[in-house]
Structure formats: structure tokens, C-alpha cells
Recover the amino acids of this structure.
């Protein structure tokens, strides 16, 4: 997998390297079809905040404040935005996203390829076997340390989507 240099940032976390602006999608990424929060979301958000990262929530369905309120995510989230579903970079300004995401987590592979980050299998229903949030945290730490991850769910910014 091709590696990309670590995105520039003006903040550094003591003993943890640079901080990042991390964007999480809502539907089927942290929120299931049954309206449940993906297992370990709160714990992962806490670890990311403790590591000095900024967490943002975005959705192709608009600003999802009701999810933030329902699951009491205010303490973790630095902003909530509408996610572009096409022309990803070009539409950030139109959707009032004040900066480009440095790392994204999404079940929609095109978004992840555009910005770089982690593609996750869609989350539909509450179940104990879902370990994706732990995997996401590990991939973020790989990226901080190495500028990439060997995990097959990691996608470098600007990478192409395989057709098969």
C-alpha cells in the first residue's frame, strides 16, 4: 500500500505526535440501522480526545445533532457538518466545513479515498462481535506513527478505488 506523508498540523500532542482533525460519518459508521451506537464508539472517542485529536461528525443527511444529543457525544465532538456525497473537496466550502479533514472514517469508500482514512464495513445492528472501533483506533495510531497503515481497511488520500 502506498504511503503518504503525515498531514501538516500546527498542534502536537505531548508523547503522542501530531494531533489530527478526524471526521466520523454517522449512518452505518457509528450509528446502526436499529439506531444503536456502534460498540466502543464512546471509549474510542475518549481515547482519541485523550490523545489530543479533534473529533468531528458529518453526514450526507445533514448536520446530525440529534445523534450527538441522544448519545451525549458533546464532550467529544468539536463540530458537526453536512458531508459532501460527491465532488468531495469542491463542496467543503459550500457545506460550511471550515477545513479539509485530515482523516476520515466512513462506510462509503469514495469519501475515504478522497480524504484518506479508514473504510469500515457498514454497521447495521447492535452486536457484541463488532470490533471496528478498536481497529479504527489502531489504524489511526499506525498512521500517526508511520504515515500509513498496513491494515487493509486503511486508504491513503487520493487513492483509487479498485473496480473488482
Amino acid at each position: 500500500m502506498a504511503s503518504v506523508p503525515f498531514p501538516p498540523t500546527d498542534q502536537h500532542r505531548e508523547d503522542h505526535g501530531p494531533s489530527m482533525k478526524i471526521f466520523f460519518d454517522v449512518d452505518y459508521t457509528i450509528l446502526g440501522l436499529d439506531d444503536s451506537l456502534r460498540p466502543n464508539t464512546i471509549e474510542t472517542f475518549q481515547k482519541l480526545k485523550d490523545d489530543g485529536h479533534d473529533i468531528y461528525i458529518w453526514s450526507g443527511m445533514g448536520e446530525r445533532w440529534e445523534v450527538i444529543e441522544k448519545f451525549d457525544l458533546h464532550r467529544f465532538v468539536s463540530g458537526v457538518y453536512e458531508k459532501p456525497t460527491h465532488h468531495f473537496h469542491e463542496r467543503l466550502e459550500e457545506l460550511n466545513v471550515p477545513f479539509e479533514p485530515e482523516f476520515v472514517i466512513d462506510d462509503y469508500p469514495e469519501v475515504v479515498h478522497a480524504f484518506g482514512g479508514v473504510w469500515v464495513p457498514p454497521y447495521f445492528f447492535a452486536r457484541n462481535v463488532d470490533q471496528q472501533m478498536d481497529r479504527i483506533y489502531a489504524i489511526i495510531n499506525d498512521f500517526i506513527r508511520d504515515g500509513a497503515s498496513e491494515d487493509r481497511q486503511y486508504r491513503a488520500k487520493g487513492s483509487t478505488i479498485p473496480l473488482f
In short: Residues 1-13 have pLDDT under 50 and may be disordered. The longest helix spans residues 132-146.
